[in-house]
Design a protein that fits this description.
magnesium, alpha/beta, binds ligand UAG, 34% helix, 23 strands, binds adenosine-5'-triphosphate, binds magnesium ion, ATP-binding, 6-stranded mixed beta sheet, single chain, binds 2,6-diaminopimelic acid
Length: 490
């Protein structure tokens, strides 16, 4: 593909004519002859130091920041490589990737927020499917498509992987997709170039304070979705009752973008009634098409919020209100999000949940509490190499709701697991500390009596535990099943 086509209209000097680009990558190790290499300064290393390697591997063009063009040129001075400098090289790279791969599903919606992204994307995909559209969701669970799923690693993939995936989906006939927009992804311009129909905000709480210096910086990253990525013809979906929703609405107002509001104070999908109904919840929702009574087959107030946002996104994407309301009655929760993982012979229940931040833990335990006729207990840990400030706050959230808190290891990564546990216990004095995650879960299971509930939090769908650089196979679901089978009372 001609480089001048990929670069047209962007903040770049005119590239040499007729330079053909065979592929593009930001990783020098993936460069092949004819590729464009994007040399970025990253969080842990500086990609420009691999410029010479990329040229040796056959790169014909290098994209980099304007202020390093000269040093990159010198590094590749012996090779015939075109060096292009930009003020925003990551944004230019993402847009080039979009042009290179070209095709995307016709209708794409995106969701951002601290919690609920995976659940919302999972719900929107199910609603699209119920409306008869071949649909996919992309995010923490990887890509889930009509004929299977594939795991990617990041919530929002890098632009090349993302655009390649979107183009493959379109060629497979998938015309509707829902994506999770992580704050890292937005901050690093991974999603620029995705053609969005609608974008939603779920909520904002403490997260990623290791990456974003302040809450305002974190919010600003999320707001890019509404201020820069959603086209003026798109629709913003938000619950005005959520903290910081006013900032999203302000941007929509300034841009004159259509807004669809949901929730108790929402106008378009107004939640006027909510009560438990069997194993689910009965919602009364007022819409422009009249009032609907919907039985949502999920527990937890937060799932109501997620379902309302998902319904709003689906309507913004053109699905009829009646179809959306009917689809809510058949929603399945995302794997590992307040998922019933087992019952003991004595009548205790064990749930697996992905809460790994204070607000999420607070909401997840509050959701389970009404179902615990006896005690509520929780197994928690916190990930290593991630915001240390959240650790005591997670301990506090756990201690606020649970009768018994068992503190264990999550993914310690490069950190000393004992010091992570100590920080969590700091917020939950009196907690039981058991480092080995299986033993912690087994202890929680052994202590269950009739009517008790145990929540195993933090790892949800994950299938490995990251210790140092090694990923040890570990699944909370399997641990729960094994611990229950060891009881010998089933
Ligand atoms: C902090 C962060 O977000 N890092 C991501 C970022 O890396 P970076 O640009 O900082 O990369 P770096 O390692 O400093 O290297 C700089 C550049 O040199 C290049 N390089 C490096 C080595 C080499 O030999 N050759 C080479 O060209 C790298 O490809 C990179 O372009 O861009 C990389 C490529 O897209 C990502 O793989 C990497 O994700 C790391 C592994 C990560 O753990 N990210 C997490 C924190 C993340 O993004 N999480 C979010 C949010 C999750 C949530 O929902 O909470 C997500 O979307 O998953
Ligand atoms: N709307 C919500 N408000 C508060 N907590 C929520 C909400 N939705 C989900 N949670 C909690 O957060 C956990 C993760 O939910 P989900 O995977 O849907 O969010 P996410 O935004 O994709 O998270 P991540 O950024 O880690 O991928 C759930 O297991 C639950 O404990
Ligand atoms: N996308 C999140 C997932 C965290 C999951 C939790 N189990 C942990 O390891 O902290 C992250 O990488 O920060
Ligand atoms: Mg997610």
């Amino acid at each position: 593909m001609d480089l001048s086509y990929l670069a047209a209209g962007m903040d770049l000097p005119d590239p040499a004519p007729d330079l053909q680009i065979k592929g593009l990558t930001a990783d020098s190790r993936k460069v092949q002859p004819g590729y464009l290499f994007a040399a970025f300064k990253g969080a842990s290393t500086d990609g420009t130091q691999f410029a010479a390697d990329s040229a040796a591997a056959g790169a014909v063009a290098i994209l980099c920041a304007s202020d390093v063009v000269e040093s990159v040129r010198q590094a590749v001075s012996n090779a015939r490589v075109q060096v292009l400098g930009s003020q925003e090289p990551r944004q230019v790279f993402a847009k080039m990737a979009a042009r290179f791969y070209g095709a995307q599903p016709d209708t794409i919606v995106a969701v951002t927020g601290t919690a609920g992204k995976t659940s919302v994307a999972h719900f929107v995909r199910q609603i699209f499917q119920a409306a008869g559209h071949p649909a996919a969701s992309l995010g923490t669970l990887g890509t889930i498509r009509p004929d299977g799923s594939s795991y990617g690693g990041l919530t929002t993939p890098d632009p090349v992987a993302l655009q390649k995936e979107l183009s493959e989906l379109q060629h497979e006939g998938v015309d509707h997709a829902a994506l999770e927009a992580s704050s890292h992804g937005l901050d690093q311009y991974r999603l620029d170039g995705v053609r969005l129909t609608a974008a939603a905000f779920t909520n904002l709480g403490r997260d990623h304070m290791d990456y974003h210096p302040t809450i305002e910086d974190y919010l600003q990253a999320k707001l890019r979705l509404f201020s820069e990525l959603l086209p003026a013809s798109g629709t913003v979906v938000v619950d005005p009752g959520e903290k910081y929703a006013d900032r999203v609405l302000q941007i929509a107002g300034q841009r004159g973008v259509r807004v669809l509001t949901v929730g108790e104070t929402g106008k378009d999908l107004k939640l006027t009634g909510l009560r438990p109904e069997g194993g689910g919840q009965l919602l009364t929702i007022e819409t422009e098409r009249g009032e609907y009574k919907v039985i949502l087959p999920l527990i937890g107030r937060f799932q109501v919020s997620n379902a309302m946002i998902a319904a709003g996104l689906s309507i913004a994407a053109g699905i009829g209100v009646g179809t959306v309301m009917r689809a809510l009655e058949n929603l399945k929760g995302a794997p590992g999000r307040l998922e019933l993982a087992g019952k003991t012979g004595s009548g205790g229940m064990v749930f697996v949940d992905y809460a790994h931040k204070p607000d999420a833990l607070d909401k997840a335990l509050a959701a389970l509490k009404p179902f615990a006729r006896g005690h509520l207990s929780v197994v928690i840990g916190a990930g290593g190499d991630r915001d240390p400030g959240k650790r005591p706050l997670m301990g506090e959230a756990a201690a606020r709701h649970a009768d018994l808190v068992i503190v264990t290891d999550d993914n310690p990564r490069s950190e000393d697991p004992a010091s992570i546990r100590k920080a969590v216990v700091g917020g939950a004095p009196g907690a039981l500390e058991i480092g080995d995650r299986y033993e912690a879960i087994a202890e929680g299971v052994r202590r269950l009596h009739s009517g008790d509930i145990l929540c195993v939090a933090g790892k949800g769908h994950e299938t490995g535990q990251i210790v140092g650089d090694t990923v040890i196979p570990f699944s909370d679901h399997e641990a729960v099943t094994r611990a229950i089978s060891q009881l010998g009372d089933t």
